[in-house]
Specification:
Elements (H helix, E strand, L loop, with lengths): L1 H9 L2 H14 L2 H14 L4 H13 L3 H14 L4 H13 L3 H14 L7 H4 L3 H22 L2 H8 L7 H13 L3 H16 L49 H14 L3 H18 L21 H6 L1 H14 L3 H10 L10 H10 L5 H12 L6 H13 L3 H10 L1 H7 L2 H12 L4 H35 L3 H38 L3 H10 L1 H4 L3 H13 L4 H14 L9 H13 L3 H21 L7 H15 L3 H11 L3 H4 L2 H19 L7 H17 L23 H17 L1
Helix pairs in contact: 2-3, 3-4, 4-5, 5-6, 6-7, 6-9, 7-9, 9-10, 10-11, 11-12, 12-13, 13-14, 13-16, 14-16, 16-17, 16-18, 17-18, 18-19, 19-20, 20-21, 20-22, 20-23, 23-24, 24-25, 25-26, 26-28, 28-29, 29-30, 30-31, 30-32, 32-33, 32-35, 33-35, 33-36, 35-37, 36-37
């Protein structure tokens, strides 16, 4: 940097200009900014230096610095129109919307722009361009801040027809009204116009979604999208880019996402990513996932124009919705590398959600940081509350809602507010909470019955009519009705589960079954519903046959990839088989699991797989609960061999429960265990002591201030305690 400054000082004026423009052309904005600041030290009112400096700051998205330059330029050159326009754009991008509107009014008054009679004032090409840009800024502010679609549309209608931005922004407004099919039509029209090069202007609120995931639901918000800068003279202006195709492809992808047509959405995302890799190899797409060390690409204009960050976020959101969590995580690591302080709010939010299972403390930290910022994605507030409730930090959720009352009205839907209120109430008054959940559930079931009736009527109309036009129209209506039905079911299921959990927590399983039976007409095709019905039948201990029927549906669907099924489902199905005398079916299922595990271990020897282990542990627990400790404990011991591969926090939890129950009954002299089995127990505990040094005995809650002693929170420590107790019982 010093070398550059010294060489510039020694150069002639023409050479300095050439060098600075070369740096700008090559994207070396830091060098250009340093050199231009040096020039300003010599002449603080240099028009060329200030203009180029504003351009460079804008390009690296430092809008605050850019607007300071334009403030100075306006003060020195108050009659230069493009400085006002660029200043308004900087204010918009930095979030100073009120100030941006004031500058637009000042521009209109100073240069006699009258929105009611535009033709009188438009006397040259630049005036027309500037007027369109100012209209788009005003419309974008109405669209994003005021949620005023009507006035935003009135402003956009002032832009001449045949403009890509007009078509795109109309599509954005249709999207906000959830008219996704109509929005898709607008975006396709804009894409066609773009391909024909009918316009090369660019929208202020071009991207309609942010690719943000949500715990219960996802509502993409309109992103602020800065205008590109065209350099080349000392009077640099913030104008428009020719290629906006990635923006339009992204908008189409978001619409298809909301229509649940994920394959179509992924098709457009794939096109954006392929184009980004082809045109911008310097952005290092996918390098992080491959484990290569790469430096940050920064938040450059090139990155922004490529729409790669937004596309990878949307891809992650789709994979997250499809429960492909590894693929969602990979989508986030595939995006161009940036340091954590350079990450945008959407990416940071999504990384927090993805990391919640592995590192919830880090996930909470990220979400709490985002909530503390002046602006954040609306989903952030709702997700933080939902995650507090998921991890049973209900007091923190209540405090967050109480301390941010304005956020609850702004960022929570009435349904979500009522749902969270009932969840929090449940901690102090389960009866009142159940009543609140029941009121919400009643509204949903009423809506579902109406939609079911309308769906049936639409099907009848299709069956009766031979007119192709009527059938097409009815099919469209049927499609929308089914989409609405699915949306209401998504809202109903969490309420249903919350109601069931109230009875589950007090072990009133018959009541839980009744709750699920009431919802059968709407939810009986959902895997989540089948799973929970199976669990509650299993827990009643006299309905194993019925539980088997539900578990089998879940297992047979994934029989060829049986390790994709939850281990506890496989374990409960085996127990159900045993309890209903279907031992051969249980053995066949266990052989299938064992075979799949052997194949997986062969391809990935270091991977830990617990499915067969947990099945054996649950079967062992069953026999222990029936008093057959010798067989049950032997099964538990067998399940954890080999110890380095099978010993984990969850498996140890099941094992130690059986040992504690056995020790309790031995101490009370209720049971007698053979010496050979007791010796086998001592050997087992010694092995757990040996291999359990780095295995936590308990997974601590993520936000606990008082943590367990690291030396005591290990399988080794607990195995020693159990071994000591067993030796004491044997000696006495």
């Amino acid at each position: 940097m010093i070398r550059h400054r010294l060489s510039l000082a020694q150069m002639k004026s023409g050479e300095k200009t050439k060098t600075i423009y070369s740096w700008i052309k090559e994207g070396n904005y830091k060098e250009a900014i340093a050199a231009l600041n040096d020039e300003l030290c010599l002449n603080r009112n240099s028009r060329a230096a200030l203009s180029l400096l504003a351009y460079c700051y804008y390009t690296i998205q430092d809008f605050d610095q850019s607007q300071q330059c334009y403030e100075q330029l306006i003060e020195i050159y108050p009659n230069e129109r493009h400085y006002y326009l660029n200043y308004a754009k900087c204010l918009y991008q930095s979030g100073a919307h009120e100030k941006a509107l004031k500058i637009i009014v000042k521009y209109s008054e100073k240069f006699h722009i009258d929105n009611d009679d535009r033709k009188k004032s438009i006397d040259n090409e630049y005036d027309q361009f500037a007027q369109n840009e100012l209209i788009k800024i005003q419309a974008a502010i109405k669209y994003t801040n005021d949620d005023d679609n009507i006035n935003a549309k009135l402003l956009i209608d002032q832009i001449p027809d045949g403009n890509v931005d007009k078509e795109t922004n109309l599509g954005c407004m249709l999207f906000k009204e959830k008219r996704y099919d109509e929005a898709i039509e607008k975006f396709r029209n804009a894409l066609q116009m773009e391909n024909l090069n009918l316009s090369n202007s660019r929208s202020n609120f071009h991207r309609i979604g942010s690719g943000q995931m949500n715990t219960m639901e996802r509502k993409p918000e309109t992103n602020k999208n800065d205008n590109a800068i065209s350099g080349g003279s000392s009077n640099a202006t913030i104008s428009s880019m020719v290629n906006q195709k990635p923006d339009l492809l992204y908008n189409l992808a978001v619409c298809y996402y909301h229509l649940r047509q994920y394959s179509d959405a992924m098709k457009y995302i794939g096109e954006i990513i392929e184009q980004g890799i082809r045109e911008h190899p310097e952005l290092s797409v996918g390098m992080n996932t491959e484990g290569l060390e790469v430096r940050s690409v920064g938040n450059t204009e090139v990155l922004h124009e490529s729409v790669l960050v937004e596309s990878f976020n949307l891809k992650a959101a789709i994979e997250y919705q499809l429960k492909n969590f590894e693929a969602a995580k990979e989508a986030l690591t595939d995006m161009p590398p940036r340091s954590e302080e350079e990450l945008d709010a959407v990416t940071l939010h999504n990384m927090a959600l993805i990391s919640m299972d592995q590192n919830p403390a880090d996930g909470f930290e990220k979400l709490q940081f985002l909530i503390g910022q002046e602006t954040f994605q609306p989903e952030t507030f709702a997700n933080l509350l939902l995650l507090y409730c998921r991890y049973e930090y209900f007091e923190l959720a209540a405090d967050l809602m109480a301390e941010n009352a304005s956020f609850t009205y702004r960022y929570l839907s009435p349904y979500l507010y009522e749902f969270l209120d009932a969840l929090i109430t449940q901690q102090t008054s389960p009866e009142d909470a159940y009543q609140k959940f029941d009121e919400i559930a009643t509204r949903h079931t009423d809506s579902l019955r109406k939609l079911s009736k309308q769906i049936q009527e639409a099907k009848n109309q299709i069956a009766k009519n031979d007119d192709a036009n009527i059938v097409t129209k009815q099919n469209e209506i049927l499609k929308k009705l089914k989409h609405s039905f699915d949306e209401v079911v998504e809202l109903y299921v969490p309420v249903l589960m919350a109601q069931a959990k109230i009875y589950w927590d007090i072990e009133c399983y018959a009541q839980v079954e009744k709750v699920f039976r009431k919802s059968a007409e709407f939810c009986n095709e959902l895997d989540l519903w089948k799973l929970n019905v199976a669990h509650v039948l299993f827990m009643q201990e006299n309905k194993f046959k019925e539980a088997t029927g539900f578990y089998e549906q879940l297992v047979k669907r994934n029989y060829d990839n049986i390790l994709d099924v939850s281990a506890i489902v496989l374990a409960n199905l085996c127990v159900s088989y045993i309890m209903t005398g279907q031992n051969e079916d249980a053995e066949e299922l266990m052989r299938k699991i064992e075979k799949e595990e052997e194949q997986l271990i062969y391809s990935d020897p270091d991977r830990k797989i617990f499915h067969l282990c947990i099945v054996n542990l649950v079967i062992g627990t069953l026999y222990c609960s029936k008093g057959n400790y010798e067989f049950g404990i032997s099964r538990v011991i067998k399940s954890l061999d080999p110890y380095p591969k099978k010993l984990g926090t969850d498996t140890w939890f099941y094992a130690k429960r059986c040992f504690l129950a056995m020790l309790e009954n031995l101490s009370k002299q209720v049971i007698i265990i053979k010496d050979s089995v007791l010796q086998e127990c001592l050997t087992f505990l010694s092995m757990c002591e040996q291999y359990g040094q780095n295995v936590k005995a308990i997974v601590e809650a993520p936000l606990e201030l008082e943590t367990l002693h690291p030396g005591k929170n290990t399988v080794t420590y607990e195995a020693r305690l159990l071994k000591a107790l067993l030796l004491e019982i044997i000696e006495n």
